[in-house]
Design a protein that fits this description.
4 helices; transmembrane helix; membrane; transmembrane; mainly alpha; 130 residues; DUF423 domain-containing protein; DUF423; elongated
């Protein structure tokens, strides 16, 4: 199977995202100050969107593998780990210095979108039927 490891990573990210969302809604509700709860929820939301984006790129790669798609996947995976992971850790520990990692993760997420756009531009236009 092409991109098996990427599929496994997306499955793991989706699993962790659902677990984190449930944990936040049930175990953390009322236990965290609103600012930290909002940070945790932001991490879940960004992980959800970027896990879905990775799924879409993998589906695209299954039909048309192009240079740049793996770069987008890698940057999003790094961004999820750094951005979402630091927000989860910040919310659960309350240690503000963990927030220094968050912008690096955000830059990786943005870089993934830029890589995807570049990949799409380089792919050219599909042939249109006459």
């Amino acid at each position: 199977m092409r991109d098996r490891n990427w599929w496994l990573l997306v499955a793991a990210s989706g699993t962790l995202m659902v677990a984190a969302g449930a944990f936040g809604a049930h175990a953390l509700e009322g236990r965290l100050v609103p600012r930290l709860m909002a940070a945790f929820e932001t991490g879940v939301r960004y992980q959800a969107w970027h896990t879905l984006a990775m799924l879409g790129v993998l589906a695209w790669r299954a039909t048309r593998p192009l240079p740049g798609q793996r770069l987008a996947l890698g940057l999003w995976a790094l961004g999820i780990a750094l951005f979402c992971g630091s927000l989860y850790a910040l919310a659960l520990s309350g240690l503000g210095r963990l927030g220094l990692i968050t912008p690096l993760g955000g830059l990786a997420l943005i870089g993934g979108w830029l890589a995807l756009g570049t990949c799409a531009l380089r792919a050219g236009r599909p042939a249109t039927p006459d």
